Amino acid sequence: MFPYGGISANVALFRELNNRIIPIFATMNKTFARFLFVCISFIVLGFSQAQEVAIELGPEEIGINETFTIKVTLSDEKIKSYDQFPEITGFQKQGISQSSSMNLINGQMSSSNSIIQYYKPSKKGTFTLPNFEIAINGKSYSSAGQKIQVVDAVSSGGLGSGAAIDPFADFFGRSTEQPEFVELDDDAFFSLSVDKEQVYQGEGFNITLAFYMSEENQAPFQFYEPGKQLDAILKKIKPTNVWEENFNITNIDPDKVTINGKRWTRFKVYEATFFPFSEGEIEIPRIPWEMIKYKVAKNPTFFGANRQEDFKTFYSSPKTIKVIPLPPHPLKNEVSVGQFQLRENITDIEVETGQGFDYNFGISGVGNINAISAPKRIPAANLNTFDPNVRQQINRGYGRVSGIKDFNYYITFTEAGEYDLSKNFEWIYFDPQLAVYDTLRSAAKIKVVGESKTNEAISSQRLGGLYDRINVEDNRFLNEKYKYYFTAAINVLLLLILVLIAVLILRRR
User: Fold this and answer.
1) What range does the domain containing 110 cover?
2) 412: which strand partners?
3) Which residues are CB-contacts of 394 (< 8 A; sequence separation ≥ 6)?
4) What are phi and psi of 274, to 5 degrees?
5) How far apart are CA 183 and CA 132, in angstroms?
6) What DSSP line would sit under 22-60, residue for residue?
7) 231 and 116: one domain?
8) Checking CA distances to 341, which of 87, 148, 411, 495 falls within 20 to 30 Å?
9) Across all residues in the chain, what is the average pLDDT?
10) 405 - beta bridge partners?
11) Are 153 and 64 in contact, with CB atoms under 8 Å apart?
């Protein structure tokens, strides 16, 4: 059986084949010799593919000032995805680095890609790395684990266990040394911004969470579990007495902004508009946001780890939004707040009595579209209408919530004449920019022609009372004889009572 242990081992095996077996082939038929050599080559290559992933653990004994590593190497394939490395009691994860290498031996090129997890011991003692599995490119691989002894600090002259290895160091005659990583100064910040610091009750204010990097920033960053962080943040910043219109940011895309004349790249992670229900103050606390910030190698190499994963937490400034009450008005607790306009589907039309038509009372503008109630209907003779069909559309963008809410009525008239719908439909709201109450009234005028349909309207209406009971009451005749006997019995009983009273009075005298 041929041994197998990776590309380099099998290259040596091919050399052995060349030195020992090829001379034997010289004595054979040339065609048969070539066929046999190809078969043996395929067998060797098959074994070389049997172990594609190697998991290497650090030494069993390290100093308190050294690092322990778990290294996963994948041959002839890139590392596209991988699971979290295991936790080790008594150690803290210090970051991940990746490296790649290529070998060219006898005209055959091979490559390997490695990922290294660094662990820093927190105290001395004996610790156990248990058995673990890790998924690389969707396939699971296991390791038996080991005991790790952490001893006193060792001198820095030797190679620490956390050293990054240059795969071509020996090939080019270079000495292998642990890379030194440095942290670059960053020009970045995390911000929670609001567009208004004072609003009326029911008026919306926009809130945005974003990470900013200047165009001059040199420090490499990467987002760290933004969804998980955002879930925790929303529990802190969302008040209970507000209506939220979430802008639903699904992708963190960069956009360019200018702040105080300086160019920045902004990454929005959350944006919404809050509509407060009650007056008072809304306190938004200081919010943390964690980013992956890489340390870079002081002396980078073409191969090997040129950066090391680290973390940095940014904090936003707290905010306070004051919510003031609406001015006095009989409907102050019922009206919507915003800038609105009326949109109708008709202006002037002519209809016949009894003939119905659709009338649309549409309210469009900026504000809490969900909270818009139906317009007030003022009763009028000869006009019949029913509850409206409602349709709404909400747009969230450009830092505001806008849209339209349509109330579609079906209207009929029973008498000819001219009707002004402004006397029948109106909607009151509060404009926060002008700080005044305003009313939207219909501008439609209807000309009705034809004969009177009042009587038809009455006959089609529900009559109620006795008429409602006609279909449910018994239509059979009652026997009047029973009624006569019942009345006679009552009269006899009353006569006996009078006689009894008279006897009692005479005895007393």
Assistant:
1) 53-163
2) 384
3) 245, 369, 370, 401, 402, 403
4) -105, 135
5) 32
6) HHHHTTS-HHHHHHHHHHHHHHHHHHHTS--EEEEE--S
7) no
8) 411
9) 80
10) 363, 392
11) yes
Q: For 352-404, what is each residue's pLDDT tens digit? A: 988 889 999 999 999 999 999 999 998 888 888 888 999 999 999 888 999 99
Which of 292, 324, 356 is the C-terminal boundary of a domain? Answer: 324
Q: Tokens for 385?
A: 């209408």
Are 83 and 13 contained in the same domain?
no
- 193 lies in the same domain as 255: yes
DSSP per-residue string spanning 58-75: --SEEETTS-EEEEEEEE
Please classify residue 307 by burial: count the beta carbons closer than 10 Å to its beta carbon, then call 0-12 exposed, 13-18 middle and 19+ buried: middle
Q: Which two tokens stand for residue 315?
A: 């904090």
pTM: 0.57
Answer yes or no: do 364 and 435 share one domain: yes
Element (H, E) at 413: strand 400-413
CB 111 within 8 A of CB 102: yes
- Cβ-Cβ contacts under 8 Å for 211 (sequence gap 6 or more): 188, 189, 190, 191, 221, 223, 266, 267, 269, 289, 291, 314
Q: What residues pair up with 264 in beta bridges, in sequence order? A: 214, 257
In sequence order, the 6+-apart residues with CB closer than 8 A to the CB of 201 are 276, 277, 278, 279, 323, 324, 325, 326, 337
Query: Strands (DSSP E) along 138-253, which ranges?
Result: 139-143, 146-151, 181-182, 188-194, 198-200, 205-214, 221-223, 242-246
Q: What own/partner pairs with CB < 8 Å and gap ≥ 24 does 262-266 have?
A: 262/214, 263/214, 263/215, 264/212, 264/213, 264/214, 264/215, 265/212, 265/213, 265/214, 265/215, 266/210, 266/211, 266/212
pLDDT digits (tens, 9 = 90+) for 117-139: 888 888 889 999 999 998 888 88
| Count of C-beta atoms within a 10 Å radius of residue 345 | 14
Establish if 171 belongs to a structural domain: no
Whether 333 contacts 366, CB under 8 Å = no
Tell me the mean pLDDT in the region 236-262. Answer: 91
Q: Which residue has the tokens 């919404």?
A: 272
- The answer to whether the beta carbons of residues 96 and 115 sit under 8 Å apart is yes
Q: Give the CA distances from residue 436 to residues 165, 337, 431, in Å, rounded to whole numbers and listed in that order.
A: 73, 10, 6
Question: Does 490 reside within a domain?
Answer: no
Residue 42 within a domain:
yes
Which amino acid is located at 141 in the chain?
Y
**Residue whose token pair is 């390290």:** 62
Residue 167 is predicted with a pLDDT of: 52
Is 493 among the domain residues? no
Backbone angles phi, psi at 458, to 5 degrees: -65, -45
CB atoms within 10 A of CB 426: 17
Residues 192 and 138 both lie in one domain: no
**Could you tell me if 37 and 92 lie in one domain?**
no
Residue where a domain terminates, one of 324, 355, 373: 324
Number of domains in the chain: 4
